[in-house]
């Protein structure tokens, strides 16, 4: 019997709504596969917790999480709490303390969906973005001075370490090696950012020499963003710094159907610490409480979790169930043009999982 402990953080807004459906899927996997058990502990760490306790998670929160095999996150963020508090005090500490330096985000057009890119087919939209997840532009180095005066100023420093840059590129190359086309595209901006980005480019060139069978291309981020639209079929593995990867993946989500369909994995490849799986989207206060959020991004993140656990068969069962529901096209949430609720769509995916096993 395989046994995994999961720390579940539903979060705020639509986070708990989509998480409910994710947990139903885990239960369906347990019941239909026999040999696997998930022990889930739900943590109430979110903006409400912050408003009561003055912090997003308890002081020993990271210590508590450390002992789990996996972390499952919904989304955090509420209008009453500044975003830099909710994100910086919950998500970023987890990503950093647990060295989840790989943020993996597939850009794949699922069966049954159409891309807003008129001339692109399913085979054209199937690649993965590897985003650096612990440093780069999202550093807390810098500060503010002279607040409230005409001389007010803010400085925010980018941090690119050799260690951090090498390890994300090595991971991206190892992924590209396993792809049939073996293509790696690195995002840069060395024409405008003249210290950190040339450094990044140099390390890309160094690591590329260790992988002569992988075809490497460096593109400036602005051109690369345009190529996501005009020639997405040329990508296999795209590797990017923290900020560039963040922006590219919202764009990636948009070309394959929207944020409701975009999952991500925060991975500690050495498996020394738990990895974390979550949808890309946030807490969507505009639709929270209406029961209309699309749970597919959350459920797809579970499929990524199964891949991480080396359970490709179960990962496939989840993806097939999602695609079957999309192909049937009868039970869809409003973002997909349907009228179904979050729960109805989740139930339909669960039904497909039972049907397949
Ligand atoms: P958002 O992703 O929450 O929403 C953007 C738009 O996409 C909204 O119109 C929303 O209704 C729609 N949308 C998002 N997920 C959807 C789903 N599953 N089904 C259907 N429609 C969906 O981004 P926004 O509005 O910029 O941020 C809202 C809050 O979420 C903020 O507090 C922000 O800081 C937080 N946030 C948290 C993240 C996380 O927990 N990892 C990531 C991004 C934002
Ligand atoms: Mg983002």
From TrEMBL:
UniProt-listed Enzyme Commission number(s): 1.1.1.83
Start and end residues of each Isopropylmalate dehydrogenase-like domain: 5-349
Protein keywords: Manganese, Metal-binding, NAD, Oxidoreductase
Molecular function GO terms recorded: tartrate dehydrogenase activity
Highest rank taxon of the organism: Bacteria
Cofactor needs: Mn(2+); Mg(2+)
Keyword Ubl conjugation attributed: no
Catalytic reaction equation(s): (R)-malate + NAD(+) = pyruvate + CO2 + NADH
Protein name, UniProt field: D-malate dehydrogenase (decarboxylating)
Organism of this sequence: Brevibacillus choshinensis
């Amino acid at each position: 019997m395989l046994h995994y402990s999961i720390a579940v953080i539903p979060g705020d807004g639509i986070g708990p709504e989509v998480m409910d459906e994710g947990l139903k899927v885990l239960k369906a996997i347990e019941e239909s596969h026999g040999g696997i058990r998930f022990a889930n502990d739900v943590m109430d760490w979110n903006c409400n917790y912050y408003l009561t306790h003055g912090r997003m998670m308890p002081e020993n929160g990271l210590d508590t999480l450390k002992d789990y095999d996996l972390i499952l996150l919904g989304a955090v963020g509420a209008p009453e709490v500044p975003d830099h508090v909710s994100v910086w005090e919950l998500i970023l500490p987890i990503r950093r303390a647990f060295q989840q330096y790989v943020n993996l985000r597939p850009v794949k057009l699922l069966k049954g969906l159409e891309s807003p890119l008129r001339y692109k087919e399913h085979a054209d939209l199937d690649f993965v973005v590897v985003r650096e997840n612990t440093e780069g532009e999202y550093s807390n180095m810098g500060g503010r001075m002279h607040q409230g005066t005409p001389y007010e100023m803010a400085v925010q420093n980018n941090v690119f370490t050799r260690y951090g840059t090498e390890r994300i590129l090595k991971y991206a190359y190892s992924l590209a090696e396993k792809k049939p086309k073996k293509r790696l595209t690195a995002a840069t901006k060395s024409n405008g950012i003249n210290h950190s980005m040339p450094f990044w480019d140099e390390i890309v060139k160094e690591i590329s020499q260790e992988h002569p069978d992988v075809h490497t291309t460096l593109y400036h981020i602005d051109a690369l963003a345009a190529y996501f639209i005009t020639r997405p079929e040329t990508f296999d593995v795209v590797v990017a710094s923290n900020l560039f990867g963040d922006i590219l993946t919202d764009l990636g989500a948009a070309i394959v159907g929207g944020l409701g369909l975009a999952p991500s994995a925060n991975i500690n490849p050495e498996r020394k610490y738990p990895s974390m799986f979550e949808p890309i989207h946030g807490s969507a206060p505009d639709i929270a409480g209406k029961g209309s959020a699309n749970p597919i991004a959350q459920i797809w993140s579970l499929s990524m979790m199964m891949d991480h656990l080396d359970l490709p068969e179960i990962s496939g069962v989840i993806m097939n169930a999602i695609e079957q529901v999309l192909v049937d096209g009868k039970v869809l949430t409003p973002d997909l043009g349907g009228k179904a609720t979050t729960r109805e769509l989740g139930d339909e995916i669960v039904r497909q999982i039972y049907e397949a096993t």
